[in-house]
Specification:
It comes from Streptomyces oryzae. Keywords: Methyltransferase, Transferase. InterPro entries: SAM-dependent_MTases_sf (IPR029063). This protein is α/β, with parallel strands linked by helices. The chain has a single domain, classed as Vaccinia Virus protein VP39 (Rossmann fold). 36% of the residues lie in helices and 22% in strands. The strands form two sheets. It has a seven-stranded mixed beta sheet with strand order 5-2-1-6-7-9-8, with helices on both faces. Strands 3-4 form a two-stranded antiparallel sheet. Helix 5 packs parallel to helix 6. It binds S-adenosyl-L-homocysteine (SAH) and magnesium ion (MG). The site of magnesium ion has 4 residues, from loops.
């Protein structure tokens, strides 16, 4: 059976969007979201940025008749601040002088015709997780990459994952030469918890199933 494919309009918007998700990993995320969507529960992303990966959750959510949720304070991660490696001056709000990816995110969703499938949660991930109260079919962790942030995302959101739901983690680099270690540590912790079964790996994307 062929893997499920996103709508061509979704893919065009994905290619045009700013962000940090290569196509092969995006398609693996889409496959996981399609599978998790069958649970009939919302799909949640931590780390919206400009909506590149959100598009794929939204497309899968539309097909499954569920909602995609995406959490971000929209002020950028450490490595995206001015002077750092991943800074993009186009996403600075000139009025307040800080990053603001929310307007760009909204344009991304609009371009794909996927605004109605998505609820944007604007705030700090642990603060949103602390008030969250309903089960999720998928949790995609792609927010802050410090140990503090990645750990808080894991601890805050995985308790909301329904049995059979999927935990997806981006930027898992077992070799420190390839990238930061916090997402890798979260992945190892999930496996060691005994609550998750390992699933497919594509690039730095890892899929685990909650038992
Ligand atoms: N998923 C995106 C990339 C996300 S980049 C893509 O595929 O293109 C990481 C994002 O996490 C940034 O936008 C940053 O603002 C957000 N972030 C970092 N720490 C956060 C926190 N503690 N709470 C909410 N958002 C956070
Ligand atoms: Mg990432």
């Amino acid at each position: 059976m062929n893997p499920p494919a996103p709508d061509p309009r979704t893919l065009a918007a994905f290619e045009a969007a700013k962000g940090f998700m290569p196509l092969d990993e995006g398609l693996a995320l889409y496959a996981a979201a399609t599978e998790a969507g069958a649970l009939g529960l919302p799909l949640l992303e931590v780390g919206t940025y400009c909506g590149r990966s959100t598009l794929l959750l939204a497309d899968a959510a539309r097909r499954a008749g569920v909602t995609a949720l995406t959490v971000d304070h929209h002020r950028g991660s450490e490595e995206q601040q001015p002077g750092w490696e991943y800074h993009d001056p186009e996403v600075v709000d000139p009025v307040v002088g800080r990053m603001d990816t929310l307007p760009t995110f909204r344009r991304t969703l609009h371009a794909a015709g996927l605004e109605e499938q998505v609820v944007a949660l604007v705030g700090r991930s642990p603060q949103v997780a602390a008030v969250w109260g309903s089960p999720l079919g998928l949790v995609f962790i792609d927010g802050g990459h410090t140990e503090e942030h990645a750990t808080a995302d894991y601890e805050g959101w995985t308790p909301h994952l329904a049995p059979g739901g999927l935990l997806v983690i981006h930027d898992v680099f077992p070799d420190p030469a390839d990238g930061g270690q916090a997402p890798h540590h979260v992945h190892e912790r999930a496996l060691a918890s005994g609550h998750f079964h390992p699933g497919p790996a594509t690039g730095s994307l890892r899929v685990l199933r909650r038992g």
